Amino acid sequence: MCKYRVIKVTLQAMGTGYTGNLLLIPANAGQREVTVLIDTGSSHTFLNSIRAEELNCRTETIARMRVKVASGHTLLSNSVCKGFSWKMQGHEFDFNVRTLDLPAHDLVLGWDWLETVSPFQVDLKKRQLAFEWKGRTLTLQRLTKDGQCKVISGRHF
Asked: Which Pfam family is an annotated match for this chain, by its short name (predicted)?
């Protein structure tokens, strides 16, 4: 019987220093600004363990999961923050997120979260993610070089 499930997270989630091709979305959780990485290479959604503490996130201990990252390192996730809520570009979301010692990002939205907004469209050149949310098309725009973001309506995507 296997004690752990092994999950692979992309190198982007682990902070390689290069952010040019990443879909990083500015967000807020409570009164704090957080950086969200949308990562199709991650099977699960993870909240940085330190950020979870800072946000007073109530965590529950759950079955340990070994998370193998592209660099070959393995990290352990053994808690979940149920109903974690955050706001991206004026829209509120909540989801059960596992905690993990992420060195570079506050929140990594993995495949499990992406399935909840599927179907979605990704524009790699513009670094945008569009999906239907509460009856309208929502387009999330990545952080620009100066740290600002643009809100784009569905008709412009």
From this structure: RVP_2
